């Protein structure tokens, strides 16, 4: 299953049967390094600081830091067991409310969607005994793999200051966060992990945001343990899997696991089942479609796995392996890892990319007729086969596709034939967005062939059919998403045209599109023009996808521009006045606000922690 944020379901709890186990210490000793030794002043302040007491409303034993509501879903079994058996109080820091994700249950988007997702997160996490979720009110935008782009939209220093303040006020001994590594992972996930790692060490440093100490009256706080999610061992099942000492094959850091099969006294079922019950509450993300029951056989239940980044307040050391010839995204991550004193996090961060496919887009003397059919001579170039990329494996009769391209003058034409055995949801035209929720085609174009993220690209999602609503005929619709400019195609690419033909009885469809090259963010480089063509297949009526295909299927094929193939534009020369530097991207920054959330306001009154991690009143002012 693919969730409604556009992420593959393998990243969410669809593969996590729900984890839990005793929050025991590390197996064996680990060596620590990287964090500077505490100064004499810090040691005196630490010694003078009274131990945190659990009855204090702001205190949390464990703090989980993430980007979106639902990011904690795969670890709720662990947090629930820790709470039930050891009395550990876990809080959640969620940087955004997921306003940029899809919605499988209604038309809401932006801030209204964020409020729905807050309600879902609070209901789901309550099953694990979690009372408090601290939202930082940063905007969630479209699915990107870029931490630097996310950093810019989130105003990184402001977000970091808020996070450090929360650490100092909640005084956790353990911080759990997401994986900061860049490949095949949401930029928001990466950035939330980076910020959590920095805040872990900065919260105990009197030099970090000193105004919080001198003005707001807070004290330094140094958490003891720092864990990050690790998906590398998710296929290991059964209660014995976490008993072995394990090391992450890339970073070299120790890894600990917590099995999901322990029984909950309160719920009367395994924590794996409790976690599944909780996950199905994230309805906007399509997770209500998850199977309601997890396996009864203990040997089929998995574990939560975490890399140990720090112990006793200091970084765990691992060998450093340098990679050469890094692409910009990976070079930037290595520079960050070095700067924070954890260079081993960048070990093997850049994957061994397969050779990208290539083709030639022929020029045609007569423009193709846009009718959802291939006419004689309209597409004389090679037929491109789309292959399985993500989700369920499908037979050719279930879902398969080919694509062709041609060019006439300054217009690119794309024809995609899709074999499909079952029709997905027919969305209404006003809801023709977030195309991965149902049957659709995506065409991704990087005009210069050198983009590091999709903000410099043109990406369109095309629905072959929509729901007749009295105002239209239920024909095709197109949008732009996660690119230089987003929204309905008639507004964001007014020269673009689409057509489709749908089989009757339904056996699939054909989508045909005309995309003026002048609609792209920059002039098309005829020798480096980069393309990916993707198909999303839904076999259900619940606005969830099952199978994805792509011409170049590797990693996050829709978002990783390094994956896209080259499509040489035969005989093309762009107009001399067309800019070669991409236009500045338009990125939505609407965010739901904690002040508009009754639950967040009540929580702030209960804990004394300001809304969105904002500043406390300056003492004496």
Automatic annotation (TrEMBL):
Where do the record's region annotations for Disordered lie?
A: 37-58, 463-497, 570-621
Keyword line: Zinc
Q: Name one Pfam family in it.
A: PIG-L
Report if keyword Transmembrane helix is assigned: no
Instruction: Report domain Carbohydrate-binding positions.
Output: 387-571
Recorded hits in Gene3D superfamilies, A to Z, give:
2.60.40.1190, LmbE-like
**Keyword flag Zinc:** yes
The name of this protein is PIG-L family deacetylase
Q: What is the lineage of its organism?
A: Bacteria, Bacillati, Actinomycetota, Actinomycetes, Kitasatosporales
């Amino acid at each position: 299953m693919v969730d409604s944020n556009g992420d593959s379901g393998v990243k969410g709890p669809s593969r996590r049967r729900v984890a839990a186990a005793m929050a025991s210490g590390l197996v064996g000793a680990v060596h620590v390094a990287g964090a500077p030794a505490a100064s004499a002043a810090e040691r005196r302040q630490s010694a003078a600081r009274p131990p945190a007491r659990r009855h204090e409303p702001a205190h949390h034993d464990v703090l989980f830091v993430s980007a979106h509501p639902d990011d904690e879903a795969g670890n709720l079994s662990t947090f629930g067991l820790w709470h039930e058996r050891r009395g550990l109080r876990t809080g959640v820091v969620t940087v955004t409310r997921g306003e940029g994700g899809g919605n499988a249950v209604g038309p809401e988007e932006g801030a209204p969607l964020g409020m729905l997702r807050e309600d879902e997160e609070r209901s789901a996490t309550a099953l694990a005994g979690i009372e408090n979720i601290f939202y930082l009110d940063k905007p969630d935008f479209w699915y990107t793999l870029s931490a630097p782009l996310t950093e810019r939209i989130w105003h990184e220093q402001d977000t970091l200051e808020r996070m450090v303040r929360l650490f100092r006020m909640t005084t956790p001994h353990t911080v759990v966060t997401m994986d900061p590594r860049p490949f095949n992972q949401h930029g928001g996930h990466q950035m939330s992990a980076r910020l959590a790692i920095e805040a872990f060490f900065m919260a105990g440093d009197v030099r970090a945001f000193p105004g919080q100490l001198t003005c707001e009256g807070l004290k330094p706080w140094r958490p003891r343990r720092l864990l990050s999610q690790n998906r590398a061992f998710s296929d290991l099942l059964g209660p014995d899997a976490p008993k072995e000492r394990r090391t992450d094959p890339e970073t070299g850091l120790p890894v600990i696991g917590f099995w999901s099969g322990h029984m909950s006294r309160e719920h009367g079922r395994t924590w794996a089942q409790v976690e599944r019950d909780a996950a199905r509450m994230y309805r906007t993300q399509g997770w209500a479609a998850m199977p309601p029951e997890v396996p009864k056989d203990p040997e089929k239940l998995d574990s939560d796995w975490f890399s140990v980044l720090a112990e006793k307040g200091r970084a765990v050391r691992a060998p450093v392996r340098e990679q050469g010839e890094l692409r910009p995204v990976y070079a930037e991550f290595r520079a960050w890892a070095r700067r924070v004193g954890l260079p081993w996090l960048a070990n093997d961060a850049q994957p061994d990319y397969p050779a990208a496919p290539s083709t030639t887009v022929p020029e045609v003397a007569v423009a193709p007729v846009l009718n959802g059919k291939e006419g004689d001579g309209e597409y004389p170039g090679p037929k491109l086969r789309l292959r399985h990329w993500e989700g369920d494996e499908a037979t050719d009769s279930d879902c398969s596709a080919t694509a062709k391209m041609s060019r006439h003058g300054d217009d690119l034409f794309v024809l995609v034939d899709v074999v499909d055995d079952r029709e997905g949801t027919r969305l209404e035209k006003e809801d023709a967005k977030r195309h991965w929720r149902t049957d659709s085609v995506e065409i991704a174009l990087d005009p210069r062939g050198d983009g590091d993220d999709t903000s410099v690209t043109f990406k369109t999602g095309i629905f072959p059919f929509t729901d007749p609503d009295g105002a239209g005929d239920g024909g095709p619709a197109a949008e732009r998403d996660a690119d230089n400019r987003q929204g309905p195609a008639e507004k964001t690419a007014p020269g673009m045209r689409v057509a489709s033909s749908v089989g009757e009885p339904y056996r699939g469809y054909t989508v045909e599109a005309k995309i003026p090259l002048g609609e792209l963010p920059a002039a098309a480089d005829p020798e480096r023009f980069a393309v990916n063509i993707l198909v999303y297949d839904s076999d259900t009526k619940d606005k969830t996808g099952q199978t994805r295909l792509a011409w170049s299927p590797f990693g996050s094929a829709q978002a990783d521009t390094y994956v896209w193939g080259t499509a040489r534009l035969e005989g093309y020369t762009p107009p001399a006045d067309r800019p070669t530097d991409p236009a500045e991207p338009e990125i939505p920054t609407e965010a739901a606000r904690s002040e508009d959330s009754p639950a967040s306001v009540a929580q702030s009154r209960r804990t004394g922690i300001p809304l969105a991690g904002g500043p406390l009143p300056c003492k004496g002012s």
